[in-house]
Hints:
Layout: H1 2-19, H2 27-47, H3 58-81, H4 86-97, H5 105-113, H6 118-144, H7 151-159, H8 162-172, H9 183-191, H10 193-204, H11 214-238, H12 244-253, H13 259-267, H14 272-300
Amino acid sequence: MNNFILIGLCILAGFALRRLRILPEGAHRGINIWIIYLAVPAVALKYIPTIKWSYELILPALMPVIVWFGSWLTFKLYSLKWPLDPATRAALTLTAGLGNTSFLGFPLVSGYYGEQALPIAVISDQVSFILMSTLGAATAMGASKTGNISIATLVKKVLLFPPFIASCAGLILPQFIDLSPITPLFDKLAATLIPLALFSVGMQLSLEGWREELPFLTIGIGYKLIIAPLLILIVILAFHLHGLTPQISLFEAAMAPMITAGVIATQYDLNPRVANLMIGIGILLSFITTAIWWWVLQALG
């Protein structure tokens, strides 16, 4: 219960302090730097060395790929009957195809399943980032007609991303050195992730103008919160998968749209209002839908 109180408190605090103009404009960017450069890498270094690698971990790695291509196909088919301009289609593909697997995913996974589930969530989050940096960036640039994206630039962006570096270190370093003496440091830094990430989410919430964009939001959020996890459920049932790993894979698939995807859409002028509303409304509704998906997973066993 304390985890859920913390989630609500941090998000409300961020939202209220921004609306009251107590915090300067763009203050969330500084918080996000701490999260990306210190807190998330600490989570990776803390949990990745504890992962017991097996074939069942293929699902959390494949989950973001399935969700992304499902989003791409959904809006391609949608645009055949109800034409979408390239910018809006790209904005919906980005925000519905990429999940908030760390800023929101880690706190909710921890709240519902405990810390033992975080190593699985870290795997999904790393793949989500790689998709964002490659297919997501290419989609944004293609829709904005800013020219071809350099493969070298994409590779460099992925390789220099601090959580990715930390994940690689978490895989390699324990084979040569004992990290246990500095594990308490990782614990302290990782503990800052949940409150700061949720506080940042609250600061970025925006619901202005949602009525005018309701048709786009209905299909976009409907895909992200209902259809995307349903795709993973179909995989789970088709392959008769059981246990914590498939549950976390589906639960992460049910997360709200990735905030960074909205940032990318805004940077490339891909219908910024739709992109930002996908994030804000998606986050709020996800608290209800993730609870429902958790109940479904418990019923399935």
